[in-house]
Design brief:
α1 (9-28) packs across α4. It contains seven helices and eleven strands. By secondary structure, it is an alpha+beta fold. It is globular. It has helices at residues 9-28, 35-39, 99-108, 115-133, 171-186, 202-210, 220-227, and strands at 52-61, 78-87, 89-98, 151-152, 197-200, 233-236, 250-254, 261-271, 275-277, 280-294, 301-304. The strands form three sheets. It has a five-stranded mixed sheet with strand order 4-11-7-5-6.
Length: 307
């Protein structure tokens, strides 16, 4: 049988003020740099309380032609779509304070420690970041890095020892590999889709930063940027290190804007009402997400084996 101990009126008033303070401070505090949440635009048209999201992916067919005067045979174009539905899932955790901590804080006039609340927020946002980048079989949500239908490119295994790894390839072969990836998007879409972002596993990104071009002071990252002007951004994601086939590293190119992909976070981090459980007051926390939706999978390409 559980024993419940309530605070007296003075202690309860103190605790009510303190929980409001802790909650507001938690929203104001800085959180870790979660690159997936920063990379993928968040959908802004999702109503609170929905349980699923239905979306359509479109492909255009047909083309315009030169026509003669009084022509009647105008060429027909059309749009073909596929419909899919994803479910919204809740993410939750909690933090709390026991009776002794609350009474001690009230007696001394000290504020309750807020790090537990910040830890709860960080844990939920870390999970949101994970679901943003990697598909989850248990929930059926899709992640950006392994979303179904992305174009898979195959890079030549012509590095040292017949390797695909960029550590075993010279500069020219690395540039060629990147152009193969870009061409895997540009060629099939006839230039309609032009990737502007290159994403690398952290070890590969670090190696390209520290590796110099011959006897010069120019890093390979700068050389790539200077020689492939369509790339506006080169960045790293730690999750790319082992997501490829055989737990190898994956490289990805794409156009990461709201027209091409969106993160379906329905509810951001929020804190519920205080709940008394035995000798502890708990504050439940939650968020809701349906993962990532890529509206134009053909705008993205990836290749495995670069590390």
């Amino acid at each position: 049988m559980k024993t419940f101990i309530n605070l007296d009126s003075k202690e309860s008033a103190f605790f009510a003020r303190e929980t409001e303070y802790v909650k507001s401070r938690t929203y104001d505090a800085k959180t870790p740099d979660l690159k997936g949440l920063a990379l993928i635009p968040q959908a802004t048209d999702l109503p609170v309380g929905i349980s699923e999201i239905t979306y359509r992916r479109y492909a255009e067919a047909g083309e315009a032609k030169v026509i003669a005067n009084y022509a009647k045979d105008f060429p027909r174009v059309d749009v073909f779509g596929e419909e899919d539905t994803v479910k919204v899932f809740d993410i939750g955790d909690s933090y709390g304070y026991n009776i002794k901590e609350i009474r001690e804080s009230a007696r001394t006039g000290k504020r309750l420690e807020q790090r537990r609340a910040l830890a709860a927020r960080n844990a939920i946002e870390t999970k949101l970041n994970e679901l943003t980048l990697v598909s989850n079989k248990a929930t059926g949500t899709y992640g950006m890095l392994d979303f179904p239908g992305l174009t898979e490119a195959t890079l030549p295994a012509d590095g040292t020892g017949s390797s695909k790894a960029w550590a075993n390839k010279d500069v020219d072969k690395i540039i060629r590999d990147i152009n193969i990836l870009l061409g895997s998007v540009i060629d099939p879409t006839k230039g309609v889709e032009v990737p502007d972002t290159l994403l690398l596993p952290l070890p590969v990104y670090s190696a390209l930063q520290s590796r110099r071009l011959g006897d010069t002071s120019t890093s390979l990252i700068k050389y790539i940027t200077d020689n492939i002007p369509m790339l506006k951004k080169i960045d790293w994601l730690n999750e790319l290190k082992s997501i490829g086939a055989g737990k190898t590293g994956r490289v990805m190119v794409g156009k990461f804007d709201e027209m091409h992909c969106e993160n379906q976070i329905v509810n951001q981090f929020e804190q519920g009402d205080v709940q008394l459980e035995g000798m502890e007051y708990k504050i439940p926390c939650m968020a809701s997400t349906a993962g990532v939706i890529v509206y134009y999978p053909g705008a993205f390409a990836y290749a495995d084996g670069i590390c």
